[in-house]
Amino acid sequence: MASQTTMSPAVHLSLPADAPRPAADCDVCAALAGQRSEAHRRGDHSAVSDCNVEIVAHRGRSRC
Description:
Blueprint lengths: L26 H15 L3 H18 L2
Helix pairs in contact: 1-2
C-alpha cells in the first residue's frame, strides 16, 4: 500500500459574499435584518447565514 509523502496542494477559497441588503420599505426584511444583527452580535454565525438565506428568499417571492 503506497502512502503519500508530500503535502497536498493548498486550498484556495474565495472571500465570503456580502450580506444581502434588505428592502428599505419592507417590514419583513427589516425584521430579518434585525434578527441577523442580533445573531451577529452574539456570534451565532449559523443564524446570520439563515437570516441571509431568508432575506434573499423573501425578496425573490414577494418582490418587496
